[in-house]
Amino acid sequence: MKMKPIDPKDISKKENYAFLTQTIVPRPIAFVTSLGEDGVLNAAPFSYFNVVSADPPLVMISIGKRAGERKDTSRNIVEHGSFVVHVTDEDNVNEMNETAANLPPDESEVEKVGLTPVKSTAVDVPGLQEARIRFECELEQHMTFTGNEGETDVIFGRIVHYHVAEDVLDKEGKVSVDKLKPVARLGGKEYAKLGKVFTIDRPK
Length: 204
Known about the structure:
Number of helices: 5
Low-confidence stretches: none
Helix content: 10-25%
Order of helices and strands: HEEEEEHEHHEEEEHEE
Radius of gyration: 18 Å
CATH topology: Pnp Oxidase, Chain A
Largest sheet: 7 strands, antiparallel
């Protein structure tokens, strides 16, 4: 096949973003709650997100800065030290999308969208009742990477408590993706539901 070579240094930040988000797909969406300095509960989605370790249980969220300033979520996590990550699914995807609105720090996306805060077990940041799975996290490490046109905060969170709705568990107590109905992020404005699931035996 004929390949087109592209040097990321030769294209803009916007073009790099478009190419990466169109090709590294599908991506899980972290629906994150965090507390501001004045106690305002912030909620925002991030698809530069994944699990990075099971022992210790760690997740990673990448949050780009806006005009050189940290976004509310990144600032809140770094200053407060804890946050909650929720799995985005078919039932909460619209609410998740609404929280992406650019609100001032003293205005809560949770209140604006009409989401329901629930008390956490191991951290003081509330979670959201509308999510079937949530991870209570403490800040493990914060890193900053500098590019040609801006900076990105990378947050590593250690999961200190899990919450899972019983109705997504099968008879063996495992999470059923068919019941969870996760939603993934693609490029642009596109999202994807869970498609056909198949299995492949791993080589011995």
